Amino acid sequence: MSIEINNESGASVDERAIGLVARHVLDSLGINPLAELSILVVDEAAMSTLHKQWLGLDGPTDVMAFPMDTLDDKPGLETDPGPSLLGDVILCPSVAARQAAAAGHSTDAELFLLTTHGVLHLLGYDHDEPEEEREMFELQSRLVTGWAEATGRGPVRTPLPGTAGEKRG
Question: Could you read off the pLDDT of 84-107 as tens digits, one per residue?
Answer without folding.
Answer: 789 999 999 999 999 999 988 899
